[in-house]
């Protein structure tokens, strides 16, 4: 896509034409000493704070002050069903039915809880496929699940790797692994958008391939939630988990979300770890009932959740609901495409964009490899208040986020990169 033009006036023109440009004003943008906005490209790591978040949290603090325990029922947004206020918007963002989604716990915790249910190895069918460049937490989670079930963690993990000399994963290679070893594989746990390369994988195809070999299929959507449209229900994947502090802007360490496909909603035979929040809401407070698990994703909850964190999530999801994922994706493709165009126009043979150039195979992140660069490059960018992620040995990850980044941000970033490199 090179129907873009060079020059700052063009960037300003694109910002003027941008129908979502007013959302930027709804965020706190960090500033330098002189009051200039940082160029913030790390929404893939920690999204910026919506200005409304403070008000949402303040509401719960006030209700706690005014009502004490009665806030569970009497608060403006009663705490008892608070998580339900988040479900519909969250479900829309990931393309799921409300019964398939709940906000609870944090990401890695949720991966474990979901594996308790969906990783049921037998003596001969016990292996787990992950991407060779899986996020460390996901790798540790599957290794310790294998170990927990009495298997050798190293032998039980099968890596889906890029081909020699390549950076991206090839779906045919997953197919080959499953053809050759499918009988020994119990689970696929794949990052829907790879955190390192930014590659967005074909979830439906992965689910089909896994299911054809009677494997369960789980997706880690940490880098996809609020970034791409995964259509979880239609994809047919069995389960998924994600965090809300990256593209969903809900604050450091905030709660995560899970998806459990409707086909498992009423299966009471699935093993799981439970708590009182897994139990039928009608009889939960009778306290002496035997466990009666709620159908659907809510049945995986254990504890009564932290309302202050949920308030921050509500602030964010209300904004997502307002803008809608279609409009967001439309801008995102244009913004990331513009970024890619400017990088390519540098014509610098040291620079290679690892992320796929096909918009349907990526979210907003571009992973830019700068051969023979070192962390000094990252430092120079940071010193200029351009916030990016550095990954050893030589990759800068940049996420122009459509809710708060501008075309001018992107223009200035590439201009500075050019300066630093020359
Ligand atoms: C960000 C991220 C995590 C972080 O997990 P937490 O449990 O929230 O600390 C895990 N996996 C992936 C793929 C991530 O991108």
Descriptive terms for the model:
422 residues, Aspartate Aminotransferase, domain 1, globular, Aspartate Aminotransferase, domain 2, 13% strand, alpha/beta, 14 helices, four-stranded antiparallel β-sheet, seven-stranded mixed β-sheet, binds pyridoxal-5'-phosphate
Written overview of the protein:
With 422 residues, the chain is of the alpha/beta class. It has 2 domains: 8-44 and 324-421, Aspartate Aminotransferase, domain 1 (Alpha-Beta Complex); 58-322, Aspartate Aminotransferase, domain 2 (3-Layer(aba) Sandwich), CATH 3.40.640. 37% of the residues lie in helices and 13% in strands. It has 14 helices and 13 strands. A 7-stranded mixed beta sheet has the order 2-8-7-6-5-3-4, with helices on both faces. β5 (185-191), α9 (203-212) and β6 form a beta-alpha-beta unit. The longest helix has 21 residues, at 325-345. Bound molecules: pyridoxal-5'-phosphate (PLP). Pyridoxal-5'-phosphate binds next to α5 and α6. The site of pyridoxal-5'-phosphate has 12 residues, from α5 and α6.
